[in-house]
């Protein structure tokens, strides 16, 4: 079967869905790989690298995609690319299925079998395919780097002949994969780190990284984790108590990094405009949830908003700001996923009833088929 990789066309997308390393391994598994010329440049993969790995280059996206049994992409293909697909072809990518209905409908209409990597279940066998984790980890790292860049002071304490520089105070709100990496990175840079989450399991994780945990630990908190390991949407009462607890704390922070998400729902509002206003001039907030509506009041997508000397950074796609590593990990996630299309003997014969494939399948035979996306 032929796997095609095209240049990502969505605004600001710098990642690519296969690297020379994964191309080589996919070919070893029996796939052929076709790459649109220039597809890897923003992620430091040259056409020569792809060719050396055994890929065939095509000048245009249309030519590459037209040959595909499987299209690998980072983000959902756009109309022209969908039009180039053969009916029955497979598309694998982060398709943003809860928000980007138009792309789903277009994929369905083109009779494509599309898999949304966001829906890969978080079972042990699928960890190697978990794009949310691989990308969130880098986003958490990058959030601290962006904060350090925007903040006019140092993160570590420094004792010098000219005087002492105080350590920065960093508060991480939402301690999933991204938040944990943000805590670890801020600690490595010498900041004094605190963190909060609504899932009780995170308390120990925060403390094991040498940071301090802060949350309203009532009955609702004790039950805030779903069986799938995700957060529930908290009641307005809980959110009010939590806001009161963190208010005084936020006022003393230099850097606040927010990462809170609830699958399929808008991001919870964690920091109000009044709390932003309570921070010292020069402080920085990094809102990782800005694409899902934002955790910080006043955050704006792809912008740095400055208010009362406080900067709210709303960069979209932080993994795209560390494109080489993000592409390398994402590509390995997709390569592992493509392995599911093969039989034990190595023949290409996707079984759409296989557990992981079934969970991630969003369109097939002309329709949107995923239960989480129907009647919405
Ligand atoms: P996520 O991106 O869905 O959310 C980020 C964090 O925001 C979560 O920790 C969530 O609890 C938190 N949050 C939500 N509402 C909040 C609020 N009102 N206030 C504060 N925090 C709030 O989370 P994620 O990174 O995808 O991780 C979710 C869970 O899945 C974790 O338990 C993680 O360890 C687990 N996980 C499991 C696997 C696996 O088994 N393969 C892989 C990755 C993650």
From TrEMBL:
It comes from the Bacteria. It holds the Pfam family AlaDh_PNT_C. InterPro entries: Ala_DH/PNT_CS2, AlaDH/PNT_N, AlaDH/PNT_NAD(H)-bd, NAD(P)-bd_dom_sf. The keyword Oxidoreductase applies. It catalyses: NAD(+) + NADPH + H(+)(in) = NADH + NADP(+) + H(+)(out). One of its GO terms (molecular function) is oxidoreductase activity. SMART domains: AlaDh_PNT_C (SM01002), AlaDh_PNT_N (SM01003). Its EC number is 7.1.1.1. It is an enzyme of class 7 (translocase). Residues 148-314 form the Alanine dehydrogenase/pyridine nucleotide transhydrogenase NAD(H)-binding domain. Residues 4-139 form the Alanine dehydrogenase/pyridine nucleotide transhydrogenase N-terminal domain. Keywords: NAD, NADP, Nucleotide-binding, Oxidoreductase, Translocase. Belongs to the AlaDH/PNT family. The transhydrogenation between NADH and NADP is coupled to respiration and ATP hydrolysis and functions as a proton pump across the membrane. This is proton-translocating NAD(P)(+) transhydrogenase. It comes from Caulobacter ginsengisoli.
């Amino acid at each position: 079967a032929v796997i095609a990789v095209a240049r990502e066309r969505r605004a600001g997308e710098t990642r690519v869905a296969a690297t020379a390393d994964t191309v080589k391994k996919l070919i070893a598994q029996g796939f052929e790989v076709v790459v649109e010329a220039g597809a890897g440049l923003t992620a430091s993969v040259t056409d020569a690298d792809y060719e050396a790995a055994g890929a065939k280059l095509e000048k245009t996206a249309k030519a590459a995609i037209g040959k595909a049994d499987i299209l690998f992409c980072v983000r959902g293909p756009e109309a022209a690319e969908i039009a180039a697909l053969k009916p029955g072809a497979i598309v694998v990518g982060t398709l943003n299925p809860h928000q980007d209905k138009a792309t789903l409908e277009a994929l369905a209409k083109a009779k494509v079998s599309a898999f949304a990597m966001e829906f890969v279940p978080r079972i042990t066998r699928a960890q190697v395919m978990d794009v949310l984790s691989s990308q969130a980890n880098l986003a958490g790292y990058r959030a601290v780097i962006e904060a350090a860049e925007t903040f006019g002071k140092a993160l570590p304490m420094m004792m010098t002949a000219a005087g002492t520089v105080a350590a920065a105070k960093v508060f991480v709100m939402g301690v999933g994969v991204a938040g944990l990496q943000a805590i670890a990175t801020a600690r490595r840079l010498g900041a004094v780190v605190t963190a909060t989450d609504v899932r009780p399991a995170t308390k120990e994780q925060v403390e094991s990284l040498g940071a301090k945990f802060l949350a309203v630990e009532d009955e609702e908190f004790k039950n805030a984790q779903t069986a799938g390991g995700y957060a529930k949407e908290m009641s307005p009462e809980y959110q009010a108590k939590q806001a009161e607890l963190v208010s005084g704390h936020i006022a003393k922070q230099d850097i606040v990094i927010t990462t809170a998400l609830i699958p399929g729902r808008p991001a919870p509002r964690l920091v109000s405009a009044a709390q932003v206003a309570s921070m010292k001039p020069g402080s920085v907030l990094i809102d990782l949830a800005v694409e899902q509506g934002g955790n910080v009041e006043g955050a704006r997508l792809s912008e740095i908003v400055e208010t009362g000397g406080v900067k709210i950074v709303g960069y979209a796609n932080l993994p795209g700001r560390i494109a080489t590593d993000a592409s390398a990990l994402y590509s390995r996630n997709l390569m592992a996923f493509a392995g599911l299309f093969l039989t034990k003997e190595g023949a290409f014969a996707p079984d759409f009833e296989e557990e992981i494939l079934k969970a991630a399948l969003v369109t097939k035979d002309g329709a949107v088929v995923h239960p989480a996306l129907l009647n919405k």
